[in-house]
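Can anyone check this?
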Amino acid sequence: MNQPLVPDVPLSRCELGRADVVPLHEDFTVEAGHRARVAILPELCGNDGFDATTAWPVVLLGDEVYPLTDQHGHRHDHPADRERLTCLVAEQWNLLELDLDEFAGQHVQMALELPAGRGTLWVQWLGVVPPEPEANSPVDHVRTRRGTNSAPTFSRGNTLPAVAMPHGFNLLTPVTDARSRTWLYQWAPEGGPRLEALAVSHQPSPWINDRAGVQLMGWHGTPHVDPARRSVAFSHDAELDRPHHYRVALADGMVAEVTPTDHGGIFRFTMPTDEACGVVLDMPQPGRWQITPLPDGRLALRGRIEPAPGHGRRQRDPVGFCYGITRQRAHLVTTRGRRRAAVLQAEAGEGRVLEVALATSFISVEQARHNLDLEIGEASFDEVRGRAEAAWKELLGRLVLPEASTEQRIVAWSNLARLHLWPSAMHENTGTAEHPHWVHASPFQPMGARARLRQRWERTASPVVEGRLYVNNGYWDTYRTCWPLLGLTDPRRTAHLVDGLLPAWRESGWMGRWSAPGHIDSMVGTSSDVIFASASAHGIDFDEVAAFDSALRNASCPPPDATVGRKGLGAARFRGWVASDEVHEALSWTVENAICDAAIAAWATGLARRAEELGIGERVEELQATASWCTNRALGISEVFDATTGFLRGRRGDGSWSTSSLAPERWGGDYTETTAWGMSVSLPQDGALLASLHGGEEALARHLDRLLATPERADHRGGYRGIIHEMREARALRLGQFALSNQPAHHISFMPLAAGQPWRSQQLVRDALDRAFVGSEIGQGYPGDEDNGEMSAWWLFAAMGLYPLAPGSGGYVLGAPLTPMTWQRPEGTLSITTRGTGHFVASVTRNGEPWSACSIGVEDLRGAVELCIELSDQPTAWGADSRPASLSTGPLGTAWGPHRRDRSALARLSGLPDHQARALMDDRGRQRVRLAAQTRLEAHWPEPWQPRLITLTTADMGPVRMTVTLLGPDDAPLDEVLVSREVRWPDQTMPFELPPVGEVSALRLCLLDDVTLCQVEVY
């Protein structure tokens, strides 16, 4: 922990006790434009000193003590404010650059103003630095090394410095550990950073692992294949990290750099001397090189990279291929290590610059060569770099930041670049640049035995399928922020991306929960349902019918294996919750299922209105019934709220509470990467229901008070084998149980809106922006794992004063912008402007008209829109009279009413033997009852009631028809309806709405076809 941030700079330790002022160094004269740099590591001391050790303590001593402003804009003029402020992140280094302009020409001394308390500060005085030249464009502000100061035990992003085209096929990256397929680049490895390669990567996350990697490393003097021997030290000050170009000057004088195309790039090594030099080619996975000379003396490089074991993958990943050409004349020296490494040496007289143009493919070596010809050809390094820079300039230039500080510009444009790495393309052009023909090697369709036998080393045995495919997305991560932000700010590009997800459905019959590139058993919830619902709400043009069918199957059918669908759904669709004694992390599954069902309900309602336009007029009744059914299921989240403890808790199959969720600070078990505290307000789709469950808005506000006042101490491993990194990150943030470092907490800062406290939400968001996303200069920048752009999108939303609280709804809640910003969209500019200062909202106007609600719909953000937010230094009453949209109080929820339980088990079912009748009402759906056409079943209840919905679960596929007759108290027929539906998938649960005829005492079902039923429910 207390290793120096900068080597060879003295490290000071300051023990807290009484309030004191401690000088850092000798006094000096301030020059205009210069800034002081100080690194501080606050060390938490057990259960004490959580805030005292992390107050901002750097001041300037002159005639008196002066507070300073840092690069994040923090300045506090009153000692009391400085004592309360906790803008440093604990247990890691914080680099402060302090503005000295107002003291130019004065003789001063820097000091720490230590607060009273207990704890330790580690400090490095890094001196005074001159002003940096102003960056010229958004691309110049991007720092791709943000988030790389991470490790498996503590994450400030867990990113890599990706060089790529927007949503490109490959990532190109420097590598500090060439043996790894996880943490390829680390900011602060033991012994300091050493470059071992520049590489092609397809890694979506270090937790998912890299695949089809190719590594290149320059050498001079003596070549070494072993990464440890070929590695060369470097300083982070010698790196250039931009989305279109990475360059580093190494300690031995060599300069290594790379620039991208969609499917490849150019690697360049500039040598310090005229001695023998060349390039080492390597693969971190099993593979093979074939090196052949070309007539002009250059070398052609053909490579095949075998798939390697990954994280819970269902299908075998397609084989990777590459094709490259040395730009200088060279010869092969040797190949080693099962032909995975090759040493190339430049011919004498070729100079000091060695370049390799390389492209990759998942189809064949020949396709990789075609990709190289299409994207690079004979273009120079500078030409390729210029094209990549232009692409990023166009994309990043759509965000205009007229008043942002330099730090805010770095964070904003770095986050926007990160957002547009994912999802990444997997399709390839087998045609020409003028007439492209897109195909992809399918990771969803297994290769047949004959294909395996025919497989040659230079061509895949995977099926090659028509169309574009986008992969590398953890939907549990990205549904919350990435896809709403893409849909709001770039709907045309989003249409292209969303459609590119659907080959997974078309080729396998399921959408995965994680795509890397095929289905992976990782995380909870079928969150693609929400992504598609959000796209629909945003008016995105994509294949909605196919997407809805994928969501319908997720909601209504148990999955065939653990990589797709909803775990435990076989019984949960009848019972109402995922049982803790049947499924790991069951409570999180129940919560995510409710979020998905709420999104599906709203989506189905919209589709029913547009059914004729979409050519599915015959499905209106199905869509309406699905909307009602999913609404009721989403309202059923109340079944896992324990009123005696005030927490959402796991339940067993028999309905009893799970004991693993008794202690609210316990991690894991029923909860995915969080605790009962972290999940206790996880109803972003229904804040009104949450408040009602707690006993009203005041009670919800008190619960939020306790949540924020209860520190995370990272001393309760719970269901995990040890203390995991998410626990440490949550402790370091010191935001109570608001663990913004992980996805389940992303909405927590906005839940005070449901309690009528918008000012409190605004304060929490600003606290997070001030502390959790700092550290761009030292490889930090995120409070936890930055998965596929979702942390970046959270910051961008929070900074503009909007957040998509109710997932999939298309609605946003409003807050206080960090800085004015404008999104330039072809459909019309979205401008966020401010008046005044502060981080509380005093008033809002939309296109000049007052806006008093705390939320706004996407329909109000289409076209040319200006939101002007008046800011205040003090909390205001703005927005306190409104509430965010909630499922239970919205149009569909209002019409449906409170959650309705299945009452089939209370009925007496006639027309079947008792054991078959019990099997159809046992909430398990495991037994199959074969019924012949014209079978009549009657269900009688002891008391009259009003049924709204009936569901049938059948093992058959094909048409199912029956008549449902509603019987009054005297068994007189009240109404009869013919229900007919096409069963698309085995074991599908289908809802049917019943006519509103008042209270009934019985239902009569007459089956018109032979059918095998597994369950019957009546709501």
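Reply from J.R.: I decoded it. DSSP finds 25 helices and 52 strands in the chain.
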